[in-house]
Amino acid sequence: MPDTASAPVLLGNQPGSFPHSVLAERHPAIIRQVREAFPYEPRQHRALDELLVNCTKGEIEPLPADAHDRDLWEAWGVREYAGRSWFDVPWLWSESWFYRRLLQAVGYFGPGPWQGIDPFRPFKLAELDSQETDEELAALDDLADRSAEEQDRALLHGSLWGNRADLGFRLSAEGARTAAAAPGLVADDSDRLWGLLSGAGEATLCLVADNAGRELVPDLLLIAHLLATGRIGRAVLHVKPYPYYVSDATTADVVDALRRLAGGRGAAAAHGRQLWSALADGRLVLRAHPFSSAPLPYHEMPGDLRAEFASATLTIVKGDLNYRRLVGDRLWPPTTDFTDVTAYFPGPVAALRTLKSDVITGLDSRMEAELVAAEDQRWRTSGTHALIQVHSPG
Ligand SMILES: O=P(O)(O)OC[C@H]1O[C@](O)(CO)[C@@H](O)[C@@H]1O
C-alpha cells in the first residue's frame, strides 16, 4: 500500500469533529428515542441511565461473565480497550460497542421477556409504512416500458440513493440536508459493475446490506431485477445478526420488506413474489454472519467470510459504515487509490454509498477541488453525495 498505511485511524476525541459529535450527542439522543418508544421496566431504565453516563463519561468495561459473546468481544478489542474512555479508542469500535451495550441494557439478548425485541423496530416500521415508500413502489409500474439500460440504471441508482435515508443519521443536526452545489455522484464505476454482471446466468452476487426500510426495499428490487434478467443466477444477502446502528437490516427486516412488497400492487407485488420463491428454491440466500456487526474493518474478516466473498462473481457493499469497514476507518487523502485500499479483498467488490462520514478514497483531484470549493468539507458528511466504486482484481 503506497501512502495508505500512514493515514490516521479516526477517533472520537476531537471536540467539534463529526466522530466526537456522534459519541457525545447522537448516542445520548438514540438512548432517549429508544426509551421513549418502549414501555420499558425499571431495570431497563436503570440500565439505560447507566449506559448514558458510561458512554459519555465512563470507561469501556468487559461484558458480563455470562454474556454469550463475551469471548468474541474480548478478541475483537475489549481485552485491549477495557479501562479506556470511549473517546480514545477507534471511533468505529466505540460505535459498535454502543449498539452492543444498548441491546444489553434493554434485555435484547435475554434470557427474559424482552429477549429479541428490537429497540429500533418502531422507527423501521414507520419508514416502511410511509407514503414515500408507497410512491417509490408505485414508480416501478412505469419502469417496465423503459429500455433494459434504463431499467438497470434506475434500479442501481434506487439502491444507491436508498442509502441516504438512514434513521440514525436523522437523529442529529448533521442530518439536516441542504441541496448539493457540486455533483451528486462523485465517482461512478457503474460501467465496470455492469461489465462484471454481464449475464451468463450463473453469476453469484453477494450483497452486504446496510439499512432496512427505504434502503433494503430497493436493494431487494435490484436483486429481483438481476435474477429476472439473468445477470445473476444466485444472490447471497448479508444482514446483521442483531439490531445495529439504528436502522441496519436484520432477517426480521427482510421479512417485513418482503411482506410489504408481496402485499402491494403491480410490479412491486410481482417482485415480492419472485423474491419469496427465490428464497424457497435457494436462488436467494440470507446470511447473518457475526462479523457483520464486528467493530473491525473487513481487512480482518474471518476465513469463512473471506471464502464466501472469494467465490462470488461480485460483492456489493452498501452504505457508509460498510464503506468505512471496507477501506479502513481512516482519514485518507481523498485521492488515495480505492484499488490500493481494497487490494486485500478476496474478489471483485463494488461500494455503493452516500457520503456520511469523513472517510473517502478514490476521488480525482479535480472532483475533490470542486467539492471543497462548493462546500468546504461539508460534502464528506452531508449525505447529499454518493459514489459507485469498483475494484476487480486481475
Ligand atoms: O447507514 P450508513 O450509510 O451505514 O451510515 C451510518 C453512518 O452513521 C454514522 O456512523 C454515524 O453514526 C456514520 O458516520 C455512518 O457511517
TrEMBL record:
<dbReference type="InterPro" id="IPR036075">
    <property type="entry name" value="ARMT-1-like_metal-bd_sf"/>
</dbReference>
<dbReference type="Pfam" id="PF01937">
    <property type="entry name" value="ARMT1-like_dom"/>
</dbReference>
<keyword id="KW-0479">Metal-binding</keyword>
<feature type="domain" description="Damage-control phosphatase ARMT1-like metal-binding">
    <location>
        <begin position="23"/>
        <end position="366"/>
    </location>
</feature>
<protein>
    <recommendedName>
        <fullName>Damage-control phosphatase ARMT1-like metal-binding domain-containing protein</fullName>
    </recommendedName>
</protein>
<dbReference type="InterPro" id="IPR002791">
    <property type="entry name" value="ARMT1-like_metal-bd"/>
</dbReference>
<keyword id="KW-0464">Manganese</keyword>
<keyword id="KW-0378">Hydrolase</keyword>
<comment type="similarity">
    <text>Belongs to the damage-control phosphatase family. Sugar phosphate phosphatase III subfamily.</text>
</comment>
<dbReference type="InterPro" id="IPR039763">
    <property type="entry name" value="ARMT1"/>
</dbReference>
